[in-house]
Design goal:
The chain starts with a strand and ends with a helix. It is α+β, with helices and mostly antiparallel strands. The longest helix is centred in the C-terminal third of the chain and has 22 residues. The protein has one domain. It has two helices and four strands.
Length: about 80
């Protein structure tokens, strides 16, 4: 199944990027988070997530932000567990 994802974000101005993605057994918010990470990686400056829209009318912004927070928390816990200081 394919989905259309629009990522709206704020940099020095408002912008958005969109694309069609195949889910391959994943949830739309997981695919959107991967797309968001790629956008941030390609940017030379910080971007703030504003809105995530799936198939033109479904807002999954909160789900993507929660997934991003969980990933960040996993990384922080890993660092805390394995650094000697």
């Amino acid at each position: 199944m394919n989905v259309n994802i629009q990522i709206h974000y704020i940099t020095s101005s408002k912008a958005y990027q969109k694309g069609d993605f195949h889910l391959r057994g994943r949830k739309p918010e997981q695919v959107a988070l991967e797309f968001w990470k790629q956008i941030k990686k390609d940017m030379s400056y910080n971007a703030e997530l504003e809105k995530v829209i799936v198939d033109g009318n479904i807002d999954i912004t909160q789900l993507v932000k929660e997934l991003e927070g969980k990933e960040r928390k996993k990384i922080d816990n890993f660092v805390d567990d394995y650094l000697p200081f």
